[in-house]
Amino acid sequence: MKDKTIDYMLRTTWLAVQKMYNEEAAKFDSTMATGFTLLSIDPEKGTPSTALGPKMGMEATSLSRILKTMEAKGLIVRKPNPDDGRGVIISLTDFGLEKRNYSREKVLTFNDAIRNNVSDEKLNHFYEVAEIINDMVSNKKIYNKNG
């Protein structure tokens, strides 16, 4: 294990999880990206389109493609934002809500499976390390050092 870099472990683990979610989603003519988007939209009030990208950590162009596909499949509708005439609220349709619940169930099943196989102490360490990595990357503490 000591010959594997942190980057390698993060990347290969995430790719395995992504593949697992995509395989599950494919059974229902969906993708992991669609499921993640459904979970990021407020099921009752909808979510402003401008808030969705930052909430998901995605670029606007990638998100725009996903939203277009989701709209074509009848998962979401775009409504004018009553608080901002220029903005749009992304809301779930009944079908979108059904698919959101399915996605939520899959995420909770994954979480339960991990929790049943990893001690609370190890999980807490995992979360601590992930937060440190996120902080260091987000705040450019790795490559933007002076000198």
The fraction of residues in strands falls at: 5-15%
End-to-end Cα distance: 32 Å
H/E topology pattern: HHEHHEEHH
Structural class by SSE content: mainly alpha
Number of strands: 3
| Helical percentage | 55-70%
Characterize the largest beta sheet: strand count, sense, and whether it forms a barrel.
Answer: 3 strands, antiparallel
Number of helices: 6
Mean pLDDT across the residues is 93
Strand order of the largest sheet: 1-3-2
Main features:
single chain, 147 residues, mainly alpha, three-stranded antiparallel sheet, 6 helices, 12% strand
Short description:
The chain is mainly α. The chain is built from six helices and three strands; from the N terminus they run ααβααββαα.
Give me the secondary-structure topology.
Elements: H1 6-26, H2 32-40, E1 47-48, H3 49-56, H4 60-72, E2 76-81, E3 84-92, H5 94-117, H6 120-138
Antiparallel strand pairs: 1-3, 2-3
Helix pairs in contact: 2-5
Explained architecture:
- With 147 residues, the protein is mostly helical.
- Helix content is 64%, strand content 12%.
- The chain is built from six helices and three strands, in the order ααβααββαα.
- Strands 1-3-2 form a three-stranded antiparallel sheet.
